[in-house]
Amino acid sequence: MAFRKNNTYKYEPGKNFRLSRSAIDSFMKCNKCFYINRRMNVKDIGMPGFSLNSAVDELLKKEFDHHRESKTAHPYMKSTGRNLIPFAHEDLDIWRDNFKGVSYLHEETNLTITGAIDDVWIDLDTDELIVVEYKSTSTNSEISLNDGTPWKEGYKRQIDIYQWLLKMNGFEVSDDSWFIYANGLKTVGSFSNELKFDTLVLKYTGSTDWVEPKILEIKKLLDQDTIPESSDNCETCSYVTSVNSL
């Protein structure tokens, strides 16, 4: 089987390395896939883009940016029970940029940790920052952050890393965060060139305690010269093993 090289994100011992939030999540899913990608320069299989999800994200950002400019609370914020408005900061566009994001040099490992956030709010009573993620889907099932699905657990880790990054940059950050979750309705009578959504505001209380220990584990793995074992539930490794056995 032929593999694609990844010339942008190859780790070289002794040199500073940029480690994205998604790379940390890759490590937690499967050490072997992470190592092959970052240490051996083999590109991930990749995923298709989700254009409708991206469109919802952009529209939500525009909506919240309007309230950011006017220093007013968006109606979604009122259900939180906290005195919130969108946070205005000169680096917000950088924080949102997928190729830049919030960044922090972890000096012990010489890894620069990065993550591109969707939004940040501020609690006017406590001056704490609130990390916010926009998500969109289309389901007739109840949406819960605690349904045990792997991607929901990944969403939570995503928030935790963003909270850690902001803390490392000197901000006071709340453990509480919110997901703005837009659910495309399938129960309406017709399409009529329009999608209708039921938008939920879901609270998540996270923890950043695990982040730095995980960075240290990642550094140790990147510095070793042997390929680690696959994770038991890694679909990519399972697929490659099946193909190689044909």
Provide tags for this entry.
three-stranded mixed β-sheet, Lambda Exonuclease, Chain A, globular, five-stranded mixed β-sheet, 246 residues, 8 strands, single chain
Please describe what this structure looks like.
By secondary structure, the protein is an alpha/beta fold. The protein has a single domain, classed as Lambda Exonuclease, Chain A (Alpha-Beta Complex). Helix content is 34%, strand content 20%. The chain is built from seven helices and eight strands. It has a five-stranded mixed sheet, with helices on both faces. A hairpin with a 5-residue loop joins strand 5 and strand 6. It is globular, with a radius of gyration of 20 Å.
Tally of contiguous helical segments:
7
Q: Segments where pLDDT lies below 50 for 5+ residues?
A: 1-7
Radius of gyration: 20 Å
Number of domains: 1
Task: Determine the structural class based on helices, strands and strand pairing.
Answer: alpha/beta
Strand content: 15-25%
**Secondary-structure element series:** EHHHEHEEEEHEEHH
CATH architecture: Alpha-Beta Complex
What is the number of E strands? 8
Task: Work out the oligomeric state of the chains in this entry.
Answer: single chain
Overall residue-averaged pLDDT value: 91
CATH class: Alpha Beta
The CA-CA distance between the termini, in Å, is 12 Å
Give me the CATH fold name: Lambda Exonuclease, Chain A
**Overall shape:** globular
Biggest sheet architecture: 5 strands, mixed
Largest sheet, order of strands side by side? 2-5-6-7-8
Work out the helicity level.
Answer: 25-40%
